[in-house]
Design a protein that fits this description.
This protein is of the alpha/beta class. Helix content is 44%, strand content 15%. It has a five-stranded antiparallel sheet with strand order 2-1-5-4-3. The chain has a five-stranded parallel sheet with strand order 7-10-13-6-14. The chain has a two-stranded antiparallel sheet with strand order 8-9. It starts with a helix and ends in an 8-residue tail after the last helix.
Length: 479
């Protein structure tokens, strides 16, 4: 290496915001970046006189990511708690020479500072909210055009106000919250408010694309790229999002290999179709959503550290329906209007049903509310939907039934009377759809993935995904 190259490398290490460790194949620390001293509580000189084995034994590194690489011979990433009380995400890579481990290069990012920034961001949001309340006579966002968003609660209107403020930018938004809280609806509204509102909105469910098809679906392909490819070729979902918004739902379900390919597109702003050698520029605004703790996924090695940095720019948490009950009535009225239009009726909810709707916790949130009302609409023989049709009694599915499929309040082997099997006013098609939906809902609570559900049901995984989409169901990842 030339003298100038050495100086360039030294400048990169000494000025980087990340903290670098370089150790040899035996664990001896060779060099660290100057900023590491503040994080790990030892001077640069002291760190370079010791080994990562000693640092881990003394609690300076808890644990050592370099030792993990030395044990496995593979790249590693993990969460560390340092002796100074800081929480950092560390990532390390092996360097081989002649087939032997010669060096381990690690870098870490101090999440303590990131957490402080996020806390400051939350405080600014609260101050902005307080300002709106003072200037608006206690109302929040009364002049906010919500378009398709049906919210009444103050917390949701504050979130909508925040999203409208960041909509003109291209900052990546991370929507967090339980399944069914309305993350897709907010992503669509963010797109409408943005300067890309006239462009495409590409909604991608990361859990629904099999890994074997991911590359062709996301990146597209040239004619003849593989057996079965169309003559004209096809633009992938990433390319279709050009000039608009790319919404990646359930991003926590994305396999690690696919995360690497996605990250490269985000970083480079270009992609290459399968069977092609020419890169194509893509320009889209990225919005992602998950019901998982991505930082925890990073710590467990299930999510890439660098991709986490990329998507965790503006995190927005949507609260569950049980914490914003003011929205239940307007959401129920909107769904009832949709059902009357879809099925050609003019049904109304009985007055006694409203108190039950408002009192329920709705673990499936907006999606569960909508599905319950649809089932009630289809089960009700007259124009007045009563509480019995909505099945709003105790939980209909017993907890812990891992191996059996429950249908309503009975197991598959239990005989049923004609009235239970086919309620009056319900057609066979409607009844079968209800049974299928209930089966899938039960499995969603007890199986970790659509692949496991497919094995249990004896059908293909894409069939499971299509059925879940049909009924608005999702896997419960927080078992």
């Amino acid at each position: 290496m030339s003298d100038i190259d050495s100086r360039v490398l030294a400048t990169i290490v000494e000025t980087a915001s990340d903290h670098f460790f370089i150790v040899d194949g035996e664990g001896q620390v060779l060099d660290v970046s100057p900023g590491a001293a503040a994080v790990y509580g030892m001077s640069r000189e002291a760190l370079c006189r010791t080994t990562v084995q000693t640092l881990e034994a003394e609690g300076v590194l808890k644990p050592s990511v370099s030792l993990e690489v030395m044990r496995t011979g593979e790249p590693a990433q993990l969460m560390q708690q340092t002796a100074t009380g800081r929480r950092v995400i560390a990532q390390a890579h092996p360097v081989y020479l002649g087939g032997k481990l010669a060096r381990v290069v690690s870098r870490s990012m101090d999440l303590t500072d990131l957490q402080l920034l996020q806390d400051e961001y939350t405080l600014l949001q609260q101050r902005f909210s307080d300002h709106l309340k003072r200037s608006g006579g206690g109302s929040i966002g009364d002049d906010l055009e919500l378009d398709s968003l049906e919210v009444r609660s103050g917390v949701m209107r504050e979130i909508a106000t925040l999203l409208k403020r960041v909509a003109p930018t291209d900052a990546t938004v991370l929507l967090l919250g339980e399944s069914g809280v309305g993350k897709t609806a907010f992503a669509r509204q963010l797109h409408r408010w943005s300067q890309r509102g006239d462009g495409p909105f590409i909604d991608v469910n990361c859990a629904s694309i099999p890994e074997s098809l991911f590359e062709s679906e996301m990146f597209g392909y040239q004619p003849g790229a593989f057996s079965g490819a169309t003559r004209q070729g096809r633009a992938g979902l990433l390319e279709q999002a050009d000039g608009g918004t790319l919404f990646l739902d359930e991003i926590g379900e994305l396999p690690l290999a696919m995360q690497t390919k996605l990250l490269k597109v985000i970083q480079d702003g270009s992609l290459t179709r399968l069977g092609d050698t020419r890169p194509r520029r893509v320009d889209f605004r990225l919005v992602v959503a998950t019901n998982q703790d991505l930082a925890q996924r990073v710590e467990r090695g299930g999510f890439r550290l660098d991709l986490y940095y990329r998507v965790n720019v503006i995190p927005v948490t949507l609260p569950p329906l049980r914490e914003r009950r003011e929205d239940i009535r307007v959401l129920a009225e909107l769904q009832l209007s949709r059902l009357n239009q879809r099925y050609g009726g003019n049904k109304l909810l009985h007055a006694s049903l409203w108190s039950q709707l408002m009192a329920r916790d709705w673990p499936g949130n907006v999606r569960e509310l909508e599905n319950t009302l649809e089932r009630a609409w289809l089960s009700s023989p007259g124009d007045l939907i009563e509480a019995e049709a909505a099945h709003l009694g105790p939980e209909r599915f017993a907890a812990g039934q891992e191996r059996g499929i429950l249908v309503g309040d009975r197991s598959p082997g239990t005989p049923a009377t004609g009235d239970t099997l086919l309620p009056e006013g319900q057609t066979l098609k409607q009844a079968l759809a209800t049974v299928e939906r209930d089966m899938l809902a039960s499995l969603c609570r007890h199986y970790p993935s659509t692949y496991a559900m497919a094995r249990r049901l004896g059908i293909s995984q894409p069939s499971v995904v299509r059925k879940l989409n049909k009924y608005g169901l999702t896997i419960n990842n927080e078992r």
